[in-house]
Amino acid sequence: MYKIVKMVAQRLALGLVTLFVVSLIIFLGVELLPGDLAQEILGRSATEETVAAFRRDLGLDLPPHTRYIEWLAGIVQGDFGRSLASQREISELIGVRLQNTLFLAALAAIISVPLALFLGVMAALYRNSVYDRAVNVVSLSAVSFPEFFIAYILILYLAVKFPWFPSLANVDPTTPLMERAYRSFLPALTLTLVVVAQMMRMTRAAIINLLASPYIEMANLKGLSRSRVILYHALPNAWAPIINVIVLSLAYLIVGVVVVEVVFIYPGLGQLIVDSVRTRDIPVVQACSLIFAATYILLNLTADVLTILTNPRLLHPK
Amino acid sequence: MTDLSQLERLLRVGGVSRRDFLKQATALGITAAVATSAANRVAHAATPKKGGRLRLGIGHGSTTDTLDPATYENLYMQVLGGAVHGKLTEVGNSGDITPELAESWEPSADARQWRFKLRQGVEFHNGKTLEAEDVIASMNHHRGEDSKSAAKPIVDPIETIEADGKDTVVFALKSGNADFPFIVSDYHLAIMPSKDGEIDATAGAGTGGYSIESYDPGVRTALKRFPNYWKSNRAHFDEAELLAIVDVTARTNALTTGEIDAMDRVDIKTAHLLARNPNVNIVETSGTAHYTFAMRTDTPPFDNNDVRLALKHALDRKAMLKTVLRGHGVEGNDHPIGRSNRYHAGDLPQREYDVDKAKFHLKKAGLSSLAVDLSAADAAFPGAVDAAVLYKEHAAKAGIDINVVREPNDGYWSNVWLKKPWCAVYWGGRPTEDWMFSTAYAAGAPWNDTYWEHARFNDLLIQARAELDEAKRREMYHEMQTLVRDEGGVVVPMFNNYVMGLSKKLAHEEMGANWGFDGFRAVERWWFA
Hints:
The complex is a heterodimer of chains A (about 325) and B (about 525).
Chain A: H1 2-32, H2 37-42, H3 48-58, H4 64-76, H5 90-125, H6 130-144, H7 147-161, H8 177-183, H9 185-211, H10 214-221, H11 226-255, H12 258-264, H13 269-278, H14 282-310
Helix pairs in contact in A: 1-14, 5-6, 5-9, 5-11, 6-9, 7-9, 7-12, 9-11, 10-11, 11-14, 12-13, 13-14
Chain B: H1 4-13, H2 18-27, H3 32-45, E1 53-58, H4 75-84, E2 89-91, E3 97-99, E4 102-107, E5 113-118, H5 132-140, H6 152-155, E6 158-163, E7 168-173, H7 180-183, E8 194-195, E9 198-199, E10 210-216, E11 220-225, E12 239-244, H8 248-256, E13 262-263, H9 271-274, E14 280-295, H10 305-313, H11 317-324, E15 329-331, H12 355-364, E16 370-376, H13 384-396, E17 400-406, H14 412-415, E18 422-427, H15 433-440, H16 455-466, H17 470-487, E19 490-503, E20 506-507, H18 516-519, H19 522-525, E21 527-528
Parallel strand pairs in B: 1-12, 1-13, 16-17
Antiparallel strand pairs in B: 2-3, 4-5, 5-7, 6-7, 8-9, 10-11, 11-12, 13-19, 14-18, 14-19, 15-19, 20-21
Helix pairs in contact in B: 1-2, 1-3, 2-3, 10-12, 16-17
């Protein structure tokens, strides 16, 4: 147990360093983009005078390193600062959207993870059968199409031709839970189709990989049923790769959904970061990237811890 | 458009303006009296009904928007402003200037001083009553050294603003401007309640027909009818919801599935398919919005007017209108004044695609061939890159080699426009000739993207601005349009229509053409039939 705690602490410390590097890269990246917030906000209407007034007001006329250090000082004290464009507290700006993003990711995960596991185990169980091939073809096709295409197809059939679900997922904090799940169903289904193939294939492959092991042969020789061999003998040892791919998919559901957000007008973090990059609203971009980076770091850590828990041998490297 | 009943239907749904209706009806051989009564019959048939919840899907809106009218830069905020805020004056449905918060106004003889008499008993959403000090504070928000307002250039000509009692405001201008009542109708110049001479620009309180219930930038706004609204014949919906739906396919889906009642910027490639939907009307207005290719007249080879003329003749506007806009627009005539403007010079001959003339001017410029770069990006206007490539094809026949430079969309307005010698540009247009010319054609104007300096034009501009005699003004603006057309640095291929999709449940009067969504006033002007 002590080893796990030590590893978690080490990884968290490393994570902080990663976050710092990420923030630096993002800051430099946005700085390199042409134009600044004043020009982007005023757009066509910009004149030199108004741009200068804008910069004076927001401190954009200060040199980049001064602005970065000021921002960093705020972050260390837990203050994300204010959006340059709207002057709203970033924590308040992000709060609702982060909830929305997490809700959509959770909904998609609730549908896709059990589905993928079930399909994967069944595919391993009936390897090379018609069922196995059909599942593979369908899920691989779904993952090969771009997300917006799947989204439009779903809208066409499930919202326009058969108006069962709304084509706009406009939820707000006052929407009741069931209504929210109903409105978010099409985006969640789109995401499910995008992520299910990878998880399903990994489950199938991990199990099949083990089927050649001597202890599985032993189980077979004992005359156990095929489903018992797979569920009780093979699956527990296959968890490590499966957990890893599930966690990576979850991370994707949180940080990679901007296209789905745009198509379904879902007010999540992706849209916020795109708008903020467009207007060069650096503090908001920074805050969003830190959340995304932290998501990856934490989920990867979780994956490692879970992997060790399912396979304690990993704690004792030879 | 062959018979009167069809025309009547168009008039009813706003597909044709009252003025055009009368013109076309007369062309059908119907006497003016019959045509006018038919037009009135339609207007009369449309008695607004109260109630309902309007849901607009708007193809703009960003999380970085703010409620401060000084930074309104997209249709979402403009429509929101149109519902929430009143201005001193309003551009009416047919393009004329009508009183709003100002009941009446009076210029001095030289049009330098304007007295606006304010309407009595107008209430703000926060309960305050409109007074002269509110108008002054609202205007001052855009003026002065530290102004971050996009409207700064248009309020710059104001020298002083003073109150004369509680209900009169006197503007003194640096020079005479006969169009000043149009200037104060600008969507930035919203009148807001003041406190100690300052307005709280982001509080969102106005005098408009709807007050803001909730506002989530880039997502949605919930509006509620303001019970004490002073206009009795407007603001028919009980509630309204403005949704930012930037993706055009999502917007179209939302309209066809009934999630919204109206959308802007219908995808013109699929407009004919959307028109087949039994619940949707496609409504178009042709206003002052136009596309241009701006040449910097201070940069060779565009400093030679013959080169400019050669290029103007080397473009097939008809083909471009048909290809890029699929006919949803009107041919341009190399000047920025649209048909809905008061002094549009309709009798100027249409500039035609003429390879011989292009070659002639090229020869006159002492050139046998010409190679120029044309910068374009879809940020300039949708289809700008296609339009540039089309231009290249047309010009090649005249021995002109146009090299289309595809610029990044990001930062187009700060890095390409006003910088590159020749680039594609979009103009929303301005309600008056003077405004358009002073913004983009006057010598020294910050957005004079052709860097054009024409002594006669600039003289006329100042004269016409202060001229209160209609006939003389018309003559001057006519000459100025001719000057821009024949000597200016701008190629105007076409004026684009505002193409909207409306649920058939919606009704409205003649649709304002000055801006999209009924001059930004859809929320207070429309109703459910």
